[in-house]
Amino acid sequence: MRPEDYPPQEPFSELGSRHQKEIASRIADIEGENFIIGENPYQSVVVYPADQPSGVVIGLMHGGGWTNGYKEWMALMAPGLNARGVTVVSIGYRLAPQHVYPACFDDCADAVAWMYKSIAKWGGDPDRIYVCGHSAGGHLAALLALKTDWQGERDLPATVIKGALPISGTFQFGPESGLSMRPRFLGDPADNAEVDASPQTHLRADAPPFHVSYGTKDFPHLIKQSEKFATDLEKLGVTVETLALNECDHLGASYAAGEQDGQWVKSAVKFMNSGT
Asked: 79: cis peptide before it, omega within 30°?
């Protein structure tokens, strides 16, 4: 799908506009199979199959501050993962401020349910599903792996997520988050969505393994959040790997994950294969 195939979204910031242009130039020749799985075009997925699937499946969620972005952005990561046997599914979700939490989370959960029931068609194993995302997508990936109230509602096993690989994610909202402003996807402050929307709220000893990445030149509050999140999970006995992407700022971390023979893809595939 093209940007014009979607309902309008918030105007891009200067940073977002730069990211959109850069991503568009990098993914122009990468194609996948698109499926609408809800009433809104943003409720959709695109599958990038591996020529020789290993069975490992990864669901990718884009960034954009929960107000911008397209699932097609994550095509950037498909070639490197596909070449190593990973079946890639990029997940779309409804955006704020028109749709506030938990709409984005629910859409991603529905996409995981679709993957579980459909991915065998492309050689994916529904019992080997991982989730990943950059920025806002990293937040959603972590939340999917930690929350335990959505799987049963969709007739999924509690262990459907085998691991999470957030990149430059946000793990905490509220006064101690370091965020300069309250994200609009949280909706009315009276609803106190900060608590339920924070992965840090849902830490548990029986969580699946995590692979936490961030750029060494990322936003300072995201570096701090990532380090605390990983440390707190480890204290509970959860298996955690961390990867600091050298010299990468916030957008650079996204591009680094798309380098076909780069540090991130090699580390991520090793992580996923070690859990199978």
From this structure: no
- In CATH, the number for domain 35-274 is 3.40.50.1820
- Locate the domains of the chain by residue range: 35-274
For the chain, give the number of residues: 276
Mean pLDDT for 253-271 is 97
Q: Considering the chain, what is the average pLDDT of its residues? A: 96
Q: How many CB atoms lie within 10 A of CB 221?
A: 14
Beta-strand ranges (E) seen in the chain are 33-36, 44-48, 57-61, 87-91, 129-134, 161-167, 210-215, 240-245
* Sequence-distant (≥ 6) Cβ neighbours of residue 137 within 8 angstroms: 60, 61, 62, 63, 69, 74, 166, 167, 169
Confidence grade of residue 202 (pLDDT, cut at 50, 70, 90):
very high
Residue 212 CA to residue 61 CA, distance in Å, equals 15
Residue 163 pairs with which residues in a beta bridge?
A: 130
pLDDT given at position 49? 98
CA distances for 161 relative to 116, 246, 265, angstroms: 10, 28, 19
Specify the pLDDT at position 176.
86
Per-residue CA distances from 39 to 44, 94, 257 (Å) = 9, 10, 31
**Tokens 């579980």 correspond to what residue?**
116
